[in-house]
Amino acid sequence: MAKSIKDHLQDIFDDLGAGDQRKFKSKLCDRKTEPRIRRAAVEKVEDSIDLAGLMVTTFTESGAVPVTIEILQAIGCNEQAEELITITGKSTHVSPTAPKVSLPATGPSAPSTEHFIDKNRTKLISRVHNVDCILDELLQMKIITEEDNETIQAEKTSQKKMRNLLMGPIKSAGTKGKDALYSALKEIEPCLMEDLESQ
């Protein structure tokens, strides 16, 4: 069953973590454009499910996405904003300002200056299924720790595992982590990688 806008928003809010969720809610209260959300309603929000529900109830499914993207960009969460644009095909009048990773034009970064992993983040989350084997490879390469591995393995779906991997250890490891993940994907998911690289 296809995910609803509310489901996609919930996933994005899950990615934010407690600190960025607080920033998001604060910015939401400060919004001057109608329809506005009362601070009392925002303060009742306890988790990502409540926040996604509030956005859809207030702005409707079609209106909630541009508002969410606008606020994500305002608080500097450009990766999540880009992911939401990619998933929904919707944008906002605010241009994404996410910095691009400049790398030599070889390997996973060629021919664009944006790293392969960044460029295909959403597709990797939705299409990589053999996440456990990839985690084993990254653990062996010392890109992730035993603790990272256990935390990610605890997730119930491959999408959540992949999202946590990309938003956590790989993001922290920078280019080295992305290159290692690229190598592991080439070895474990060769057909998927061939398909993505041909696009």
From TrEMBL:
Give the CC-aspect GO terms: canonical inflammasome complex
Domain spans labelled CARD: 109-199
Q: Name one Pfam family in it.
A: CARD
Q: Which domain of life is it from?
A: Eukaryota
Q: Where is the Pyrin domain?
A: 1-90
Q: What is its main location?
A: other
Please give the biological process terms from Gene Ontology that the record holds. Answer: inflammatory response; innate immune response; regulation of apoptotic process
| Key words of the record | Cytoplasm, Immunity, Inflammasome, Inflammatory response, Innate immunity
The keyword Repeat is annotated on this UniProt entry: no
Q: Where in the cell is it found?
A: Inflammasome
The entry's protein name is: Apoptosis-associated speck-like protein containing a CARD isoform X2
Annotated gene: pycard
